Amino acid sequence: MADTAQSIDVEVPDPWSLPLDTFDVSRAEIFQQNKQGAYFRRLREEAPVHYCPESMFGPYWSITRYDDIIAVDSNHLQFSSQKSIVIGDTPDDFDTPMFIAQDPPIHDVQRKAVQPAVAPSQLSDIESLIRQRVCNILDDVPVGERINWVEHVSKELTTQMLATLFDFPFEDRHLLPYWSDVTTTSETVGIAVDMEHRKQELMKCLEYFMRLWQQRASEPRKFDFISLFAHDPKTKDMINNPMELMGNLMLLIVGGNDTTRNSISGGVVHLNNNPAEYAKLKADPSLIPNMVSEIIRYQTPLAHMRRTALEDVDFKGHKIRAGDRVVMWYASGNRDDTVIERADEFLIDRPNARRHLSFGFGIHRCMGNRVAEMQLRILWEEILNRFDHIELVGEPKRVLSNFVLGYEDVPVIVHPK
User: What is the pLDDT of residue 98?
Assistant: First the structure.
């Protein structure tokens, strides 16, 4: 996994005081305490292609500048996704291949099978359903009292959208974010923290989806993920490789859960931390689509993706050896002020706001990016229709992960119009 079991109480030292030759930005507590910015700034300035010889995941290279990340992300001939997409290796006895962790041609075949679920024509068909669900969720939000925005809105909206994309039994939809958290999070109340327990929980996930697969395979093809996989001639036999099936399911669940959920939460946090931008939004709601892109850039819901060098590569004056881990830190590239002007500022009217790395680049670019943007756009349209202000009333509690940049608790009071 790409996280640790340490707690928020672990001291995070000043990055400028550390020797570069042992500099390790993979420690999850750095991200939980929201201190990664200074770590990445030092790397971008002093060692944009940096080798860490020792970490709990083993040695790895950090790629921290925007253009260098694009160069690695778009070069699958030398930098492969197949070993793992996160900094840590998958246990040998629990290998779960997924199409984002594959290279062409397997990647292209599996991605193409489910792409129709998030095609523009399909999204147009479900926009009214998403808006109705957004309205129902917001209408149920208690006003004038302290609530956790993550639980009341972010998680519920994302879960309902995932249930729609999978055509998952609505009464069991809470299982989807649970399985996502089991996959990505170390220390969350009620979530499995040891690998053996994780395996057990994910096997329950697999069993559930295998039942759905058998059901969909016997029915006419529809536009949900399971039906598309089950009916595509090139993926219908995936049911015979349960670990590959589970890998692809978890990719779709985590991808659909974490990016949107944490951008919904992050938007509230960033607008409260930048009141002039919140005022700008209220004065001009037409900024919402651009603001959505800025939220996704500024939050960067997935901090990194990993590649593995397939051969010795000379990269920016460094010799990357075959088999080396190469970690693209999207959270750093999105703050690279040599490419993005005033990159550390949250500006909802930023020009070219979609020019961010949060969805990846090249053949592995997130295929659900338009779904995420649509959910956020509709949500903020309906928030402005209903509420005067969403007030942050405490310090957000962030998850313990170097992969998912997200929140467990965003305490707010919702003020009605």
Answer: 43
